[in-house]
User: Fold Glycosyl hydrolase from Listeria riparia FSL S10-1204.
Amino acid sequence: MVPRCSSNEGNGEILDNDVLKNTSLDKELMGDDTYLRLRQITDNILKQAAKDNTELAQLIDESVNQVLQNTNLSEKLQRMFRKCMLNTITTTLVQKEDDSAFLFTGDIPAMWLRDSGGQLRVFLNLEDPSGKLYDAIGAVIRQQFRYILLDPYTNAFNFAADGNCWSSIDRSERQNPWSWERKYELDSLCFPVELAYFYWKQTKRTDLFDGDFLAAVKELIRVFRVEQHHEEQSEYFFIRDNGIEQDTLPNEGRGTKVGYTGMIWSGFRPSDDACEYGYLLPANMFAVVILGYLQEIVGAFYPNEEELLAMITEIRAEVQAGIEKFGIVEHPTYGDIYAYEVDGLGNYNIMDDTGVPSLLSLPYIKYCEMDDPIYQNTRRFSLSTDNRYYFEGKAAKGLGSPHTPPGYVWHMGLAIQGLTSTDANECEALLALFETTDAGTDLTHEGFLADDPNVYTREWFSWSNSIFCEFILKEIGKLKL
Assistant:
């Protein structure tokens, strides 16, 4: 396993060293040289910030005060909510000289299209009378769509075209100095659309929908169409010859063979691990959702783009048909459930992984309602030991991932479980788990050992913090999205 890298410090001295326990496995797993290299890149980027985030932090702190009024949350959970909300704005946002902004994933000096969308979604639940928070979110969205124009197959981007990267041995059909990592992930193209759509709906602002946005949407749709026919039309390949199977694609970097299904091929999962089979069901379900958003956006702001709108509509229908034809399997215990991956040739992968979009997260990404029968069957499977990435230990039980060692439960998985639950007792138990599994940091992590939460990965994982905060908002009746 190659862990997502980590750095002890965020924006200046924001992340206190005494908060970061030496039980984190990050430095041990990656080695001193990589750990220090990433911190140096982070420091260099922070020096280029056009301004600090003090004013934004004050606005968020005031909003948190309002949100937490008259709640029954414990003092610990209130403290965690405040710290996790502030963590993203104060430690990962780098405002630029132009009208865009860069958003660290946290402990890695790169901006993931997926993570940056997930990090900011929670903030659209807040009122912003000053408009300054919404300005910052809009600036990140502009950067996301400019990145898509640069290279839609890149999952994580650099602050500048400086050639920084996670691995210098990577091979792909295109070299791009903006690419921190060029693992093509279908969901990475969905998250910016989701954030832009929610931004429009919550703020009523329309300034995002300009020529650059339209050009990026056309590029995104082009990739969707190509990757529906991956074997025949796609030039993409990715090879990282480091001996770690999940870090590279087989078949000379092309992935395992697939047949046509109408769905869109993906090389990698939301965990950045390679897909076993190329049609990742949760990502395709997310694509159906955001294609619906694009139908609405194109219809409202680009009325002359009739051909584009027709293609969006056609692809959406084809993907949904593929999900229904190839993505549902009969399980002997749970009945009809969604597969995690299929290849269109008769093979399928029955599992679930924490990374969003996951099968557990389908109502969260707005693909279906919580009471949908197939979803409920799938949810019962996902949250059982029949799913090989669901773990139970002395301190916790929950969804994990092949991206982390066996026996590790993810805070993100616990939050998504809560966000997709209508059971008050289940949610109360999940809140209690958050109180007792943060290793005394008042922050969430990637994975923690189910037998000992003081042993964990990723000291600074902003997306996980944000999803935890969404769960808190749901529980106090203040979640809008």
Q: What stands out?
A: Confidence is low (pLDDT under 50) at residues 1-23. The longest helix spans residues 281-301. Residues 119 and 463 are 5 Å apart (CA to CA).
